[in-house]
Structures are given as structure tokens and as C-alpha cells.
Specification:
- The structure holds three protein chains of three kinds.
- Chain A is an all-alpha fold.
- Chain A is built from ten helices and no strands.
- Chain A has one domain.
- The two termini of chain A are 27 Å apart.
- Chain B is α/β, with parallel strands linked by helices.
- In chain B, the strands form two sheets. Chain B has a six-stranded mixed β-sheet, sandwiched between helices.
- The longest helix of chain B is centred in the last third of the chain and has 16 residues.
- The chains are: A mainly alpha, B alpha/beta, C mainly alpha.
- Chains in contact: A-B, A-C.
- At the A-B interface, helix 1 and helix 4 of A face helix 2 and helix 3 of B.
Chain lengths: 266, 243, 284
């Protein structure tokens, strides 16, 4: 456990020292201005569009930083072969996987909640000018949990692909692929198998259905509409979504650790 | 009482595209052993299999045939890794960290903490001449500085087995002397040294036994008496030319 | 020194091209952009390609639409027919991407009814709005208004305004719905709405005004019931309101609280010369 935490610390240190992280910080300050611009562009329900903007921006920056961080760290480990050295350290192979996962998760959580908290006073200030729609504070502050559940899956898949590939760029592209597929699954399945498309061959149907059962359904974690429009969202359903994310992540991490145990680091 | 390293009939293949997906024999039936407290050198031409052998000892890759035991255990076991250290050829550390952070990290993995760890880190940084640069990020380090850091992390905490792959690469003459002194001092204090190098002069000065690896085969083990009689270069060339 | 001069010259050059060439290029680009607004893909593709940023994509499409329509308005007071296609397409796309987005339904309804007379399409979008935002009284209200004003369907108009009134609990809306319902013949419902609304009315003056309307409607109902009885007995419409009194179905012609006189039209519908509007009375 101690070893995992040590490597988590190292990962977190590396992530926060990326140049991209400083750029993201500057961009966030600039995007505060965007909040005021959006405010002046909206017609009705100002609180909703402002909240949409903040949650969408948080989503965007966290994903961007996760992909950047993954690429940078994996580039070191795989391309520059630092991994060979790390494996020789007094660290279990699985500690490396878990430490990397926890480090990037902590990093993501810091960014997500940092943005949410930073924007909050400005949000309240502007909403007070035009309070023509309700704003649910609890939902606003719990949104990052769902984003982090999604990010958790992305990180675990990135680590899985690290184990399977020999070049960092392949890992990152594959992870982006999982992200795109994960978000498209529901739509594509509904469109192709819901009778909206013309007759499609059986093979395609099997492929789509198979993909639906294998790949993670990332669109479940996009709860922005529900948060912003205060739609029906029971505690049980919210919990199930988080559990789905955590459970799937655990499964992928276990597979990754198992594969990594006997991976030859050439 | 175990031996530090015990290798018997070790064979390792690599798959290469150049040979049309055929297997390339990197190591062929290698057997050797290194006793506790010994200073063992491994020499050979480029591509002889030195790095492969080291990776097998560390558990970074796995053998296709034969057996390895490191301090009585299988390579890669956490108990083994806690008692050994490794300096790779051309070390590449995480450049967004600084020397102090890396050494603190490794020290904590080796079980040290608090004031004891701080003291050890300070001492080793002093020995390798990096104390003044301890807060500088590694991306600003020169090749020689990285090598010194590599030595520092290899010797911090006096590990039982130290594995060094070309440890004197990239060092200036003063640096090489420092490195040699470090290695000899650690050996005197009981650490087993296993190191590879192209520079036979260094091997001669440090090692009590030398193995000659050529095209994946261990051709000869040169014992201490023979080392004192003839220059190592002559022994080495003689063995190679016989092949 | 030389490097400084080179840097300063380069910065000056950048300013110069931004002040000279760029503005005209930008104008041409913005004109082209007017064409781009028409380039929507299918709603489902737009929704898929928005991934997790549906709310913002919907917002930006709507802003683009507003800018496009605003520019068109500047050029010509009467919008061209192609603008209708753009509005319909944009609304289909945005309501698919984010069906909870308020602004798009409001804009679509405003333009489609008043500028293009396409009330059918406007109502189609309003029904979608109601499906996703069932607790918003305003879309029911707009629907009611569309039926009443544009389609002259008083019955449906009253029906939807009543729904809006129920959600909003607005006395004004209740009164309006009642008025429309009356025009469609649903006097009993109108009376019910007014009764409940009088109960909730807090202002004395407003309550008085509503009570007057209630009284008027109750009297209308009285006459309507008499007309119904006449029809059952004699299988035809009464000639005029006096006949109802003659036949003993009405004791007397009730007094219109608004100062008018009740009469029957050719279809036997109860009408009044005052038309239930409060005659404005000047106090000396």
C-alpha cells in the first residue's frame, strides 16, 4: 500500500508539472470571461445556460488534461524506456499500474473541483441578475463525480493499452477510440437496431450488439442535461452509474495488472 | 546461505522481423554464479547479450529455458527488489522531478523515512557531487549529471546487490574516479557488485571475477589470479579470436 | 539592437495587415457564414457529434440562428422563404441535441407564426417542448394563443390556456381561458375556473372583477340551459330570447352585469351586446 501511495505521489507531481497544466490554468482564467459573454448572449433561463457552460468547460478541460497527461507519462515510460528502470525498483508491477491510475485520478479530481469551485462565485453573481430558472447547488457540486467516473474508465483503458502496445502513441489513439466508441454506442445501437436505418446485414447487427456489450457505455456519465434541467435523477440511479464506472474500472485494472505481471519490457 | 546470483543453462530468444519472424538467440545456455560480497564484471562486444542477461536478472524479461535465482528467490519478487538496485545504460528518469525527489522516492521504497532518509539523501548527493543541483529539475541536467544521479540512486541505502550497466558512461575523468570509488567502497561494505562495461580498464580495477560473453554464450570466467597475471584486454581478445 | 528593430518591424507589419487586408476578408467570410447556417447535418448526426457537449452545441446553433435572422431583418423587413427552411431545420437540430432548451422553441414559434404563418409547424415544436418540459406553462399558453388567434379554434385555444392556467395558477390566465372557453361554448368549465380563481384571488379589486364575470357566465349558462330545454321540447332553435320567457323556460331575461343586453344568434348561441368587456366609465 505504501509503495502504491509513493508512486501515486510521483505521478501526481509529474502531472502537475506538465507545461500543459499551466496552460490549462491560464485558459481557465480566460474562460471566466466567456462566462460573462455567454450571459449576454442568452435569452431565457440564464442560470441554466451558465451552469451548462461551466460543466461543459470542466468536462472539456479535464478530458484534455487527462489525455495530455497520459500521453506525456506514457511517452516517458514506453518510448524512453523508463519503465524498465521503474520495474526494477522495489515496486510490484501492479503497484505501478495502480499508482499511475490513482495519481492521474487525483490530478483529474483536483482540476474538476478546482474549476467548479473557482467559477461558483461568478456563477452566483450572474444568476442573481437574472434568476429566471432554478439552480440546484447540490447537483452542481456532485456533477464532477460522474465526470471522474468516466475519466476513471478512460485512464484504466489507457493503462491496459500501455500493457498491450509498444508505442505510446498507439496507446493514446486506442484510448481516444474507446472514448469515441463509448459515447457513440447508445446512439448507433438505437439508430441501427431500432429500425430507423434501412435493412442492415446480420454481421453488422452482431458487431454493433457485441460492441454494446463489450465497450463501456460512456454516455451514461454525461449527466449534464439532467443536472442543468433538474430532470428526474434518483439517488439510486446516480449510485448505480457510479458503481458501474467503478466496477468496470476495477475489472479493467485487474486485467491490466494480470497482463502486466508477465509482460516483457523490451 | 544463498548466492547473490545463480544462473543455470539460461537461454533467451527474441522474435525479430529482420530474420523473417524467426527467433534470434540472444543467450544460449549461460551458467554462472555470483557469491555474496563479490564484485563480478561482465564484458563483451556490442550485442553480446550483456543487457539481456541483466534484464533477466531483474525480472524485466523472462527466460525461455534455464533457471535464475537472485538472492535465493525468483527474479522480480518484491523481497528481492527491495535488496537490490539497478543503474541502466543511459539512464532516463522523469524529467519533471528533481534529484532530491527521486532519491526520496527510492529511499522510501527501500524502507527509509524521516530524518534517516534525509541524511542518506544528503550524503549520497554530496558523494556524487550533485548536492548543489538537488532542486534543479532533471530536464536541465547534462548527460554526466544524470549518470551521477543514476549512481546515487544505485547506492543509496547500501543495497545488498548492485547491478550496473555501463556505469561510467558519460562521466569525465573526475566523475569516473568518483564512480569507481563509490563502487569499491560499497563492495567493501558488503554489497555484491554485478557490472558490465566496455572499458576493460575499469573492470580490472574493480572486479574480482570477470565473465566474457560473446554472441550469447559465456565463453570464459576469468578468476582473480589470472586477472592479476595478464591484462584483461589480452585475455579478452584471445578468447574472442579463438571463436 | 538589430534584433529589436526586426521584432518591432514584424509587429508593425502584423498591425498593418490586420487593419487593411483582414477586415475585408472577414466581411467576405461572414457573408459566406450566412450560407453555412443552412449546412446542418441530420439531427441525429448533429446530436452524436456533440458527444458530451450537447448543451453548448445547442446554445451556439441557436445564437447563430439569431444572428442570421437578425442580419436578414436588417436587410429586408419581410424574411425570404428560405429563412423558414433554415428556422425549421435549426429547430429540428437543436431540439434533437437538447430538447430541454427553452430559447429555441420560443424563437421558432415567434418567427414561424408571425413571419411565415406556418402555425402547424410552430405547434409541432410546441408539442415537443411540452413533451420535454411538461411543467412549463408558457408553451401551453403559446399553443393556446396559436389555436385561438391564428387558427381561430377557440375550443382548443381555451383548452391549452386552461392547462397553462392550471400550471401557472394565474388568475389572469384562468380568466382568459374562461373567456375563450365561453366563446367555444364550454360555459360550465369557464364558471368552474372562475370560481376557483376567485377563491385564490387576493386583491379585492381583482376579485370583484372576476366575480362580475362569473355572474355574467352564470346568467349565460342559465340561458343556455333554457335553449337546450327548448331544443329538446320543440326540436328547433328558439326564434329569439323572448321566446324562452314566453314558453316559460326562463322567468325573465337576465341582466347583463356589463350593461349589455343578452340575445340569441341564428345558431342559438347566447351573445350579449356588451361582449363582456368592461365599458370604461369616467367618473366626473
Amino acid at each position: 500500500m505504501r509503495d502504491i501511495l509513493e508512486f501515486t505521489r510521483i505521478t501526481l507531481k509529474q502531472s502537475t508539472r506538465l507545461r500543459a497544466f499551466y496552460s490549462a490554468f491560464v485558459i481557465t482564467l480566460v474562460s471566466l470571461i466567456g462566462l460573462f459573454v455567454i450571459y449576454s448572449f442568452s435569452m431565457f433561463e440564464i442560470p441554466r445556460i451558465l451552469e451548462s457552460y461551466v460543466l461543459s468547460y470542466t468536462n472539456f478541460i479535464v478530458l484534455l488534461m487527462v489525455f495530455f497527461t497520459l500521453f506525456s507519462l506514457l511517452q516517458y515510460d514506453i518510448d524512453r524506456k523508463t519503465l524498465q528502470y521503474v520495474i526494477a525498483l522495489p515496486l510490484r508491477r501492479r503497484d505501478y499500474i495502480v499508482g499511475r491510475y490513482l495519481g492521474i485520478m487525483c490530478f483529474s479530481a483536483i482540476i474538476a473541483y478546482g474549476i467548479i469551485v473557482l467559477f461558483y462565485p461568478f456563477l452566483i453573481l450572474l444568476m442573481k441578475q437574472r434568476p429566471d430558472a432554478p439552480f440546484n447547488v447540490v447537483r452542481y457540486f456532485t456533477y464532477p463525480l460522474f465526470l471522474l467516473a468516466e475519466v476513471s474508465l478512460i485512464i484504466s483503458f489507457a493503462l491496459l493499452f500501455t500493457t498491450l502496445s509498444t508505442k505510446s502513441i498507439i496507446s493514446v489513439i486506442s484510448t481516444v477510440g474507446v472514448y469515441l466508441i463509448g459515447h457513440s454506442l447508445d446512439e448507433v445501437k438505437e439508430f441501427l437496431l431500432g429500425g430507423h436505418a434501412q435493412e442492415i446485414p446480420l454481421f453488422s447487427k452482431i458487431l454493433v450488439k457485441g460492441a454494446w456489450y463489450i465497450f463501456p457505455n460512456l454516455s451514461l456519465f454525461d449527466v449534464k442535461l439532467r443536472m442543468v434541467y433538474n430532470l428526474q435523477f434518483s439517488f439510486e440511479e446516480a449510485l448505480m452509474i457510479i458503481i458501474y464506472g467503478i466496477g468496470y474500472t476495477l475489472a479493467v485494472l485487474v486485467i491490466t495488472c494480470a497482463l502486466f505481471e508477465r509482460k516483457e519490457i523490451l | 546461505m544463498y548466492r547473490s546470483v545463480e544462473i543455470s543453462s539460461l537461454t533467451k530468444y527474441y522474435k525479430t522481423k529482420e530474420l523473417g519472424l524467426k527467433k534470434f538467440k540472444a543467450l544460449n545456455n549461460v551458467s554462472l554464479s555470483v557469491d555474496k560480497g563479490e564484485s563480478f564484471g561482465l564484458i563483451g562486444l556490442n550485442g553480446a547479450g550483456k543487457s539481456t542477461l541483466i534484464k533477466l536478472i531483474l525480472g524485466i524479461i523472462f527466460p525461455d529455458a534455464g533457471e535464475i535465482r537472485v538472492m535465493g528467490e525468483l527474479p522480480g519478487e518484491i523481497l528481492v527488489k527491495r535488496k537490490l538496485s539497478y543503474l541502466p545504460e543511459n539512464p532516463s528518469f522523469y524529467e519533471s522531478l528533481n534529484a532530491e525527489e527521486i532519491l526520496n522516492f527510492i529511499g522510501r521504497l527501500r524502507g527509509f523515512s524521516g530524518k534517516d532518509l534525509n541524511k542518506r539523501v544528503r550524503e549520497i548527493l554530496d558523494k556524487v557531487g550533485l548536492y548543489a543541483h538537488r532542486k534543479k529539475l532533471l530536464r536541465k541536467y547534462s548527460r554526466g549529471m544524470l549518470q551521477r544521479l543514476g549512481l546515487a540512486q544505485a547506492f543509496i541505502g547500501n543495497p545488498e546487490l548492485v547491478i550496473l550497466d555501463e556505469p561510467l558512461n558519460g562521466l569525465d575523468p573526475l566523475g569516473r574516479k568518483m564512480a569507481r570509488d563509490l563502487i569499491i567502497e560499497a563492495n567493501k561494505e558488503g554489497s555484491t557488485i554485478f557490472f558490465t562495461s566496455h572499458i576493460l580498464e575499469d573492470i580490472e580495477k574493480i572486479c574480482s571475477r570477470v565473465g566474457i560473453l560473446h554472441k550469447g554464450e559465456l565463453l570464459k570466467i576469468v578468476e582473480a589470479p589470472e586477472l592479476q597475471e595478464k591484462p584483461l584486454e589480452d585475455i579478452f581478445l584471445g578468447v574472442i579470436e579463438q571463436q | 539592437m538589430r534584433r529589436l528593430i526586426i521584432i518591432l518591424l514584424s509587429v508593425t507589419f502584423i498591425f498593418v495587415i490586420n487593419l487593411t487586408i483582414m477586415p475585408s476578408l472577414s466581411r467576405k467570410h461572414r457573408n459566406l457564414k450566412k450560407e453555412y447556417i443552412k449546412l446542418f447535418f441530420s439531427p441525429s448526426f448533429e446530436k452524436w457529434s456533440a458527444f458530451e457537449w450537447r448543451t453548448m452545441k445547442g446554445f451556439f446553433h441557436t445564437v447563430n440562428l439569431r444572428v442570421y435572422l437578425g442580419k436578414l431583418r436588417e436587410e429586408t423587413p419581410v424574411l425570404p422563404p428560405e429563412a423558414e427552411t433554415v428556422i425549421v431545420k435549426a429547430t429540428e437540430v437543436v431540439s434533437c441535441i437538447n430538447p430541454y432548451y427553452y430559447d429555441i422553441y420560443y424563437i421558432a414559434n415567434g418567427f414561424l407564426t408571425w413571419d411565415f404563418g406556418n402555425v402547424e409547424m410552430a405547434n409541432k415544436f410546441l408539442f415537443k417542448a411540452i413533451k420535454y418540459r411538461p411543467r412549463d406553462w408558457f408553451f401551453y399558453f403559446l399553443l393556446g394563443f396559436n389555436y385561438f388567434y391564428f387558427l381561430k379554434d377557440y375550443k382548443k385555444g381555451g383548452f391549452y390556456i386552461k392547462k397553462a392556467a392550471e400550471i401557472r395558477r394565474s388568475p389572469f390566465l384562468s380568466s382568459l381561458a374562461a373567456r375563450l372557453m365561453y366563446a367555444s361554448g364550454r360555459t360550465e368549465v369557464a364558471i368552474q375556473i372562475l370560481r376557483s380563481m376567485i377563491k385564490n384571488a387576493k386583491e379585492e379589486g381583482w376579485r370583484k372583477s372576476l366575480s362580475k364575470r362569473l355572474k355574467a357566465l352564470e346568467r349565460v349558462l342559465l340561458i343556455e340551459k333554457a335553449v337546450e330545454q327548448y331544443r329538446l321540447k320543440f326540436h328547433k332553435n328558439p326564434r329569439d330570447i323572448n321566446e324562452l320567457v314566453d314558453k316559460g323556460l326562463l322567468k325573465e331575461i337576465p341582466e347583463d352585469p356589463y350593461g349589455g343586453i343578452f340575445y340569441l344568434d341564428e345558431d342559438g348561441m347566447v351573445k350579449t351586446t356588451s361582449n363582456f368587456t368592461e365599458r370604461f366609465q369616467r367618473t366626473p
